[in-house]
Amino acid sequence: MGASTALIAQGALARDATSAGSIMRLHPLLMGLAFSLMISLGFWMYNYEDLPGEWIDTRESRRKIHAFCQACGAALALAGYVVNYQAHQGTNQALFAVSSFSEGPAWLRLGHIFIGYACLGGLAVQVMVGILKYRILVDDNDGNDSEWSVHEYIGNTVFALANLNLLTGLWLWKEYSIAVRVIISLTLVTSLAFGPRWDGTRGFLSSEAERPRRKKKAGAGEMAFRTVLGRT
């Protein structure tokens, strides 16, 4: 996480700060901080045991840190979009079209644009669902962990889209050398493979010592949400 974020930042800030639309150099920096660092860290806090420090090995502490990391990541992603918007407006370029800020095949650049919007839309939904889930867990003393379980699936999808888009953006940004691109690509693929729990297990949250004492059926709100998404 730290290595990939540092390399992403180095390449982003290597672009000429005096060129037209130079604020665009902050776009990969902020997106790297959002997804490669904060949201990846949030996944590790949520999913893995044996992290350093006894204070962190409780469900309550992990949830607070997870929420903090994901909220910071979402804020950084929003900031990354804002600077992208400002750069396009400042140079009179359309948002949903290939621009002069990147190099490479037009289809790949368009793919980066539309995957990015899909990721941001999913992130907005994930934040709302996360708030609802966190409120229930706090109010119910962690006793209804199964409600709004769709939060996990949305999170995995958004994380996969984000890493895919970081990879495409990486290879479209000319300031990165081939060697740096390869190194960052490997770290992002590793983060994608080991960040979420793709096998359906729940890591730290499935610990027998910390397992909730009681379970409830999914509430009416979640059932309605699942119906909308086709998850009945």
UniProtKB/TrEMBL annotation:
<feature type="transmembrane region" description="Helical">
    <location>
        <begin position="67"/>
        <end position="87"/>
    </location>
</feature>
<dbReference type="GO" id="GO:0140575">
    <property type="term" value="F:transmembrane monodehydroascorbate reductase activity"/>
</dbReference>
<dbReference type="InterPro" id="IPR006593">
    <property type="entry name" value="Cyt_b561/ferric_Rdtase_TM"/>
</dbReference>
<keyword id="KW-0479">Metal-binding</keyword>
<keyword id="KW-0813">Transport</keyword>
<dbReference type="Pfam" id="PF03188">
    <property type="entry name" value="Cytochrom_B561"/>
</dbReference>
<dbReference type="InterPro" id="IPR045150">
    <property type="entry name" value="CYB561D1/2"/>
</dbReference>
<dbReference type="GO" id="GO:0016020">
    <property type="term" value="C:membrane"/>
</dbReference>
<keyword id="KW-0472">Membrane</keyword>
<keyword id="KW-0349">Heme</keyword>
<keyword id="KW-0408">Iron</keyword>
<feature type="transmembrane region" description="Helical">
    <location>
        <begin position="29"/>
        <end position="46"/>
    </location>
</feature>
<feature type="transmembrane region" description="Helical">
    <location>
        <begin position="153"/>
        <end position="172"/>
    </location>
</feature>
<keyword id="KW-1133">Transmembrane helix</keyword>
<feature type="domain" description="Cytochrome b561">
    <location>
        <begin position="1"/>
        <end position="203"/>
    </location>
</feature>
<keyword id="KW-0249">Electron transport</keyword>
<feature type="transmembrane region" description="Helical">
    <location>
        <begin position="178"/>
        <end position="195"/>
    </location>
</feature>
<dbReference type="GO" id="GO:0046872">
    <property type="term" value="F:metal ion binding"/>
</dbReference>
<feature type="transmembrane region" description="Helical">
    <location>
        <begin position="107"/>
        <end position="132"/>
    </location>
</feature>
<keyword id="KW-0812">Transmembrane</keyword>
<protein>
    <recommendedName>
        <fullName>Cytochrome b561 domain-containing protein</fullName>
    </recommendedName>
</protein>
